[in-house]
Specification:
single chain, alpha+beta, about 150 residues
């Protein structure tokens, strides 16, 4: 009887370990680019028509499903499960027109003439924009300038 109990506990522990490993493996995994939400595929086709998807990853962050995409031109994009962009990082180039609201682009042209956006992140309550010259700009959701930081 004791041997049977030990085997049962060993089997139960094994199931727990396998279940935890499977959960971790599924929490972050590479997927075919075709599996991206339709909004994400439309965003890529609209703003990065000359770039191709090198890889896509599905991940879980803070209990929410997200997608991370790497494009052939070096751009990294993060999407929410809905397909809306969360972060766009054009490490080797500048953001295409139309990604950030026009109010931000207009304010940027007045405050920092000639500056270009190479990274934008949509956060709760607004946008975090990184521009040439080493500045990080914070804007509210309606495009009102909040502050600047050096990075």
């Amino acid at each position: 009887m004791k041997k049977l109990k030990k085997r049962y506990y060993a089997l139960a522990a094994g199931v727990v370990v396998v279940g935890a490993a499977l959960y971790c493996a599924l929490a972050e995994m590479r997927i075919p680019c075709l599996w991206l939400p339709s909004g994400a595929k439309t965003f890529i086709a609209t703003y990065f028509p000359d770039a191709s998807c090198i890889y896509a990853e599905r991940e879980r962050e803070d209990g929410h499903r997200e997608f991370e995409v790497k494009l052939s031109d070096g751009t990294d994009i993060e999407f929410h499960a809905s397909g809306e962009w969360k972060k766009v990082d054009c490490g080797y180039s500048f953001l295409p027109a139309g990604i950030v609201p026009a109010a931000i682009v207009e304010d940027l042209a007045v405050r920092y003439p000639g500056a270009k956006i190479y990274k934008a992140e949509r956060e709760r309550g607004g946008y975090e924009i990184k521009i040439t010259g080493g500045l990080e700009l914070i804007y509210s959701a309606d495009g009102t300038f909040v502050r600047e930081d050096m990075y």
